[in-house]
Design a protein that fits this description.
Methyltransferase, Methionine Synthase (B12-binding Domains), Chain A, domain 1; single chain
Length: 113
């Protein structure tokens, strides 16, 4: 099991590596919940802490979120197959005509993870 490599790839903002590693874990039969929690969610916790500390900034947060999104694209259909229940529903939006929706998109990607 190489879930730690997924974690590291997220923190290195390597979208292609995340997707490849997630697919390898799925193919190896690793529990989807483990891939999701250990490989994709935990590094977002690290990113959030670094952002709070001022050692990481919005562009890096976006790159990490995009790396996680690459992995989620692989596990999302599998979660549907397992019958996993969503934790809830969240509605996100911006003011009409607002071109600055980066924060909204970032929050959406992180919540999805």
């Amino acid at each position: 099991m190489q879930v730690a490599k997924i974690h590291d790839a997220v923190l290195e903002y390597e979208e292609e590596d995340v997707a490849r590693l997630v697919q390898a874990e799925v193919d190896a039969g690793t529990d989807i919940k483990v891939i999701l929690e250990e490989g994709l969610i935990k590094p977002l916790d690290v990113v959030g802490e670094q952002f709070s500390d001022g050692t990481l900034f919005v562009p890096e947060m976006l790159m990490a979120a995009e790396a996680v999104a690459a992995g989620l694209g692989i596990v999302r259909p599998l979660l549907v197959e397992t019958g996993a229940k969503p934790a809830g529903t969240i509605v996100l939006g911006t003011v009409k005509g607002d071109l600055h929706d980066i924060g909204k998109n970032l929050v959406g990607m992180m919540l999805e993870g």
